[in-house]
Fold this protein.
Amino acid sequence: MITILMATYNGERFVRAQIESILEQTEQNFILQIQDDGSTDGTFSIISEYAEKYPGQVKVHKSTANSGGAKWNFLQMMTAFQDDYVMLCDQDDVWLPNKIEVTLRAMQNLEETHGKQTPILIHTDLTVVDESLNVIGKSLNKMLDLRMDKTTLPSQVVQNTVTGCTAMYNQALAQLIRMPKFCLVHDWWLGLVAVCFGKKEYLPERTMLYRQHGANSIGAKKVRSVAYIVDKALRPDTIRMQLKAPYLQAEELLRVYDDRLDTTQKTFLCDFISIPKYGKLKRWMITQKLGVAKRGFVRKIAQFLYI
């Protein structure tokens, strides 16, 4: 069975379309678990309507208090729900009809190769659209200038390569997920756990429409555009904060999984965490030695200048 985890908060504009796209999947062996984070609009009424109409397939939960953001809402569910397979779902996108089927087939093929006892995370590319579902970018991977196919701890610790709303992970990985006190986003944390203890696989196939609108928690940016570069250049303090956060997240990973990480992983994380303590030249030398330079020329320059 597949459990789909959807986090909702004030999403009445688009949540109905998202649920409908899930109910219309070619693979129907799933339960949709929706946890509302204290919405003040009509979201809870809408999701409750679907739970009443599809009692065997849609389950609704309401947080007793707002968790503090989508990542914490997701992490609460990720640590509470386990199944053969788990998928993550935003409230405002649209899944293509074969999203579950395609991802499940890839997962089962990997389990045949590596065994069900191996923690496995699969994630895909997606199409970026505006709020009316007009295409903005055919590939998020290209828009963000990322290498989502990177599967190592050095590549994941410095830059998130996992888009959570495309992800599926198996029960072996679900059993390893622990609640951090700090993380940047839930899918980054999930990716870190996967590369530390199992396998991360990227499918270049686009399986959903990633809706961009004014209320996005995290959006898709054309990182090579002049507007993006100028915007970043005008906010150096924000850049410094964003660049230092992965080191704090790595420190938390080391704390939370101290009992499971091997000696090589611990040494790497300690070396990575130490980078901001040094001057620019030594920082860059260690960055190169550890293989933790960010992807893309602009990101590399910012990493060198602002850490």
User: Anything to note?
Assistant: The first strand starts at residue 2 and ends at 8.
